[in-house]
Every structure is written in structure tokens, then in C-alpha cells.
Write a structure and sequence with these properties.
The structure is a single chain. This protein is α/β, with parallel strands linked by helices. The chain contains seven helices and six strands, in the order βαββααβαβαβαα. α1 runs antiparallel to α2.
Length: about 180
């Protein structure tokens, strides 16, 4: 499938305690396409929405990623609050939602109705999850029309994103672009 290239991406990044073993994996995932992202919603038991400016320098991107990594992965996983925040973001036109999470929601509320609403509202609903994830919620997302990719290694992420988001990217190109050695 060939999809139209997009810069209209919202990312939900799970920074909860259950993501500790996948923290670097999650940051690597975001780093591979952060230059195409408009909003990042960081969530654990607290939710924080960050709007990324259209003119992003490599230095600002690297600083943003370091801040996420430095603040740590801790707390519970409140997907309901994170998905509610996405509903509050003004999204004119077609947007893609990419969730980077193990889907281990452990707070009050059911995320499925919100997932259903967003799948219908957005042009694409993509979940990138490690092998150790909530299989029941992953199947619910699939049944509602979302795409779920189970990733064993961060090296698989650029291939998935290139195919599904039509991003002209590779991990090597991103390293050079961000001046990471």
C-alpha cells in the first residue's frame, strides 16, 4: 500500500513504570520521526501535551528527547486521560495518531470507547508496542480498525513507519540528520 505522506502526526508516548524496560526503545521510536510530529502527549498517571513548533532545529529536538528520557518512566498507565487529551487537540484536516505503549492501562475507565471515537475521527490510528503488551487491548484496537505493530527491536520501527506513514526515513539517515554518532 502506498499512503499519502503526512506531517500531521500526534504521538501518545507511554512514560509509565511498565515502560521502564522499553524506555530507550520508546525514545528511539519517537526520534525516528519526531521531525514530522505536531503534538506529543506524554502519559503515565499524569498527562502532558507538547505542541512541537513547525520550525524545529536539531538541537531543540535532541533537547526534547533528552528531557523525556531524563524525567524517567514511572507511575501508572492512564490511557483514558491521554486519549481524552487527544480529543481536546484541535486537529484540522487529516491526522494520524501513533501510540507508543505496552497498552497496560491500569487506571479507572475503559479506553475502548475513546479508541473507537478516534479511529473514526482520524485518518490513521497506529499502535507500536513491544512484545510484552496487553494482548486483549491490542486485539480490541485491531477490531475497531486500528493498526497494531508488535516490535521486537527498535531497528524494526523505521521500516514500519516508512511503510505505514510513507516517511522517507531510515535510522541511519535520522542519526545523520540529528547529528547523533
Amino acid at each position: 500500500m502506498n499512503y499519502k505522506r503526512t506531517n500531521n502526526i500526534v504521538v501518545l508516548l507511554d512514560t509509565s513504570g511498565s515502560m521502564v524496560p522499553h524506555g530507550l526503545w520508546a525514545i528511539t521510536c519517537l526520534a525516528t520521526f519526531v521531525h514530522k510530529v505536531r503534538y506529543v502527549v506524554l502519559f503515565s498517571d499524569k498527562v502532558s501535551v507538547v505542541k512541537l513548533s513547525r520550525t524545529r532545529s536539531n538541537r531543540l529536538i535532541i533537547q526534547f528527547l533528552k528531557t523525556i528520557l531524563g524525567s524517567g518512566f514511572r507511575g501508572n498507565t492512564d490511557m483514558v486521560s491521554a486519549l481524552k487529551e487527544v480529543n481536546k487537540i484541535p486537529l484540522p484536516g487529516k491526522y494520524t495518531l501513533v501510540i507508543i505503549s505496552d497498552l497496560k492501562h491500569n487506571m479507572p475507565g475503559d479506553p475502548v470507547p475513546l479508541v473507537r471515537s478516534l479511529v473514526n475521527r482520524l485518518s490513521r490510528f497506529i499502535v507500536i508496542t513491544p512484545v510484552n503488551h496487553n494482548h486483549v487491548l491490542a486485539e480490541e484496537v485491531r477490531s475497531l480498525g486500528g493498526e497494531v505493530f508488535i516490535v521486537k527491536s527498535p531497528l524494526e520501527i523505521p521500516c514500519i513507519l516508512k511503510k505505514r506513514l510513507n516517511l522517507k526515513t531510515s535510522l541511519v539517515k535520522e542519526r545523520k540528520r540529528l547529528s547523533i554518532k
